[in-house]
Amino acid sequence: MSLKSTVKCTGICSECGKCHGANLLKDAHGRKTKLVHFPDDFVPRTGEQGVGVAFDIGTTTVVAMAWNLMTGKEFGAVACTNPQNKFGADVISRITYCDDDPDKLREIRRTIIDGLNGLIAELIDNHPIQSDRIVQVVVGGNTTMSHIFAGYNPASLARAPFNPMYTGSPVLTQEETGLMVSPCAQITLLPNIAGHVGGDITAGIVATRILNEKKRTLFLDIGTNGEIVLAHNGVAMTCSTAAGPAFEGATIRFGMRAAPGAIEKIQIRDGEVFIKTVDNDEPVGICGSGIIDVIAEMLGAGLINNKGRLASAEELMKASPDNMLAERLINTEEGREFVLVYKEDGHHIVITQKDIREIQLAKGAIAAGIAIMSNRMGMKISDIEKIIIAGAFGNFIHKESAVAIGLIPTLPMNRILSAGNTAGAGVSMALMNPVEMDLAQSIPSRVEHVELASCADFQDQYMKALAF
């Protein structure tokens, strides 16, 4: 059985960054989505001649958005996989590759510049844009991506105390970067907040207006690093948690990115397992939203206890003799597994005990970070009144499942918001209005960074947070 759902949406797809037109029932990937959007009070500063380009440099995906600076209207948006992935899928791999070697730093930097130029070329091909008319560029990315783009070696980010090599908001020239823009272009890099809280989070703070929130508000950007911001009445703290790649599928047996055939939604009802895949293709694996769903559903069905232990078929039958799920619990040489999808060739799609432990570790790190931040802000987790989840992952995560496994605090669902590509929105806002740029540049001094590794209670909070 498929779970059908559509949503009316417009604008830029938050996963691939491309504008697929207005009034779509679903995005270009066949998935419901929330798209890049600006806060209600944002007004672009118009009247400048020329074109501006905003770059959101993610570890996995790079998005370029071109804007008419005279009218404040968007020309278009394009995206590509970050070409630095050949040096490693995560930031630590790329930092290790550079390894204080100037030649390797130049190589990995050249790779991302070439990728950005490819996106500029695509924008020029598809829209009435000329490279010498691109006079303003704003770039946002995590701290490692920002270092590499600006030509700073990121090696210090991989060792305590994780200090960045620069502070503030560097302004570069066309000659210094090699971007295909006007020789007179101003290229501004949004400031990082700390060693692992980068310009993408600065942009997210701009886009969400979280510093203006009267409610106790939690902002989450969940990826290999889970960045957390907690704000109330203009006071804000932030931290970064080493969540690992579990939510992106990298350490899950059948984990994968949200490509066609990835299981993105799961329900377990009356002894049956119902799935929905991306593009409704034949299932080949499971992506982040599906991984969170399956843990939540298995908890609800009694297949997993609150310590994360996967039940045996015998235990399930003893508790419920007619439970048809028991036949899906199998023992192998590698441990106990639960079959999600049967395959004729016998290579079934399964969730393993190890998979469950990986999700426990990842969600435990984020939940512990939230607990410590709450304590530092003088509040309880139960005092949090609003949650904003950023990024493509936030678009597709099922809030009920995230609450069920303890990834995010329990709140009414209407107080848990998926905000789309807040990094892309914030970078664009800083590009189009100097007031927003000033706000972005002020954020590192306004947001207190908490280094979790130095917190005496982190280990205790982490161990508590491992339970479902």
Could you explain the architecture of this structure?
The chain has about 475 residues and is α/β, with parallel strands linked by helices. It has helices spanning about 90-100, 100-125, 145-150, 175, 200-210, 290-300, 315-320, 355-375, 390-395, 400-405, 420-430, 435-445, 460-465, and strands at about 50-55, 60-70, 75-80, 135-140, 170, 185-190, 215-220, 225-230, 235-240, 260-270, 270-275, 285, 330, 335-340, 350, 385-390, 415-420, 445-450. It has 13 helices and 18 strands. It folds into 4 domains: about 1-35, no CATH class; about 50-190, 2-Layer Sandwich (Nucleotidyltransferase, domain 5); about 210-245 and about 360-420 and about 450-465, Nucleotidyltransferase, domain 5, CATH 3.30.420; about 250-355, no CATH class.
CATH class of the largest domain: Alpha Beta
Which structural class best describes the helix and strand composition? alpha/beta
Shape: globular
- Care to count the β-strands? 18
Radius of gyration: 22 Å
Helix content: 25-40%
Adjacency order of strands in the biggest sheet: 3-2-1-4-6-5
Please indicate the percent range of residues in DSSP E strands (runs of 2 or more): 15-25%
Residue-averaged pLDDT: 89
What is the level-2 CATH architecture name of the largest domain?
A: 2-Layer Sandwich
CATH topology of the largest domain: the name is Nucleotidyltransferase, domain 5
